[in-house]
Amino acid sequence: MEDWKKLAQAADDNRRKKIPEHRQKPDLVLRLITLSGALSWILLLPVLVLVEKARPVLVTFFDRWMGLEGRDYWDADAYRYAFYLMLLIMLLSAGGLVLNAFRNKRSTDSWRVNLIVVFLLSVAGVAYYLINIAQ
User: What is the reported pTM?
Assistant: First the structure.
């Protein structure tokens, strides 16, 4: 019985030994993952501007008082451009997630949360456009 305990302890000790890191610098795949994440977030900024421009303009008391008119409908052109950008962002982040899945082989490798977040945001924006706007 003691032999099994020693063998189990030796196996556990071998598993916990630090594996030397042979990666010197980020390889091409890691740079592409980083680039797709950064580009996705950069492209999300114009989407926010376009959606803000496209949303209906609510008329406040002061607008009525000064004779300004609002808009109670979405600007279809601006939102369509935002939709196309969201599709591009979704493709970029999905490509980064696929590369990340191939890259995730070691225990020290991790999922890029920013790619997941930007992918979910773009999916939500595309779904909103398809359900509410593009009727």
Answer: 0.72
